[in-house]
Amino acid sequence: MISRVRPFLTPGVVGGGIVIVLWILVICFAGVLAPHDAFAASGARLQAPSLGHLFGTDALGRDVFTRVLYGARQSLPMAVLAIAISALAGSLIGALAGFFGGVLDAVLMRLADITMAFPSILLAMAVAAALGPGLTNAFLAIVVVWWPIYARLVRGQILSIREREHVTAARAIGMGRLATLRKHVLPHALTPVLVSATMDLGMIIILVASLSFLGLGALPPSPEWGAMITEGSANFYQWWIAAGPGLAIVSVVLAINFLGDGLRDVLDVKGRER
Predict the structure, then answer these.
(1) Tell me: the pLDDT tens digits for 91-122?
(2) Which domain holds residue 145?
(3) Phi then psi for 57, rounded to 5 degrees?
(4) Does a structural domain hold residue 268?
(5) Is residue 44 part of a domain?
(6) Predicted local confidence at residue 189, as pLDDT
(7) Contacts (Cβ under 8 Å, ≥6 apart) of 164
(8) Of 7, 114, 170, 254, which alpha carbon lies 20 to 30 A from 141's?
(9) How far apart are alpha carbons 272 and 69 in whole angstroms?
(10) Inter-residue contact 138 to 79 (CB < 8 Å)
(11) Torsion on CA atoms 214, 30, 14, 202, rounded to nearest 10
(12) Cα-based angle 36, 37, 39 (whole degrees, multiple of 5)
């Protein structure tokens, strides 16, 4: 056990963990930490960064630093929920397809292939545009785009696990197929899902921000990071408007990637041996 814990606690993983904990605290206590109202003007318009406004103010005089803090409440929980639902739905579909095979496998995997044939951002844009702008519709668009990744991943795991001796023994003693899948197959296939979900979370955060940047996610005056970058692009020379949420996205994504790398080193035994 010790030999597995030590490689995980690398400087990158520790630093990433600290950053994630700090953002979790921001989500929980944004109302306490924020120095100003996120929706009301608190200073002069387009004011450069200063001690009173660490990230300056936007075109309406709102404090950018405050809005970045409140933006974490929208971007991060939504990304976590989207990746969780995508992984859950995709894992269930992949498990059923891989274990039962036949027509069910063919239909579900062809549906996954069709979905994965389109670039993620383009398909998410199309779904969000069809449903209409808003964070809820952006969430649904991300789930539609991301579930096939986990369906394919789990199906591949199931195909190799279902032929193992302990699965054959469970069938031999008369255990039902669904019970065998739930007790003896799925638990052995979920480790790659956990690693992949951790690594994909950063990509989902960027996708959420991208949809909002294009006007297909959060709507004004919502302090969502992608929407704030859109506001900054309209004021090119006031660089601080977009720099604040941009730095927030970079810090979260890098921290998640560091944690994902460490988690993969611990749980992915085959990869570590290679």
Answers:
(1) 999 988 888 888 988 999 999 999 999 998 89
(2) 2-34+58-273
(3) -125, 160
(4) yes
(5) no
(6) 78
(7) none
(8) 254
(9) 37
(10) no
(11) -20
(12) 140
pLDDT of 84 higher than 80 = yes
Residue-wise DSSP of 216-260:
SS--TT---HHHHHHHHHTSTT-THHHHHHHHHHHHHHHHHHHHH
Provide the terminal-to-terminal Cα distance of the chain, rounded to the nearest Å: 20
Structure tokens at 130: 């069809």
The token duo for 100 is 């039962």
- CA 274 to chain centroid, in Å, comes to 27
Query: pTM of the full predicted structure?
Result: 0.86
pLDDT of residue 181: 73
Structural domain count, the chain: 1
What is the CATH number for 142? 1.10.3720.10
Whether a cis peptide bond, with omega within 30° of 0, leads into 148 is no
pLDDT, position 172: 73
Decide if 125 contacts 211 (C-beta within 8 A): yes
For residue 180, the one-letter residue type is T
53 domain-assigned: no
Whether 39 is covered by a domain: the verdict is no
Residue with tokens 């859109």: 230
d(CA 10, CA 262): 8
- Number of Cα atoms under 13 Å in the Cβ half of residue 239: 1
Q: CA 160, CA 52: separation in Å to the nearest integer?
A: 60
Q: Measured in whole angstroms, how far is the alpha carbon of residue 222 from the centre of its chain?
A: 20
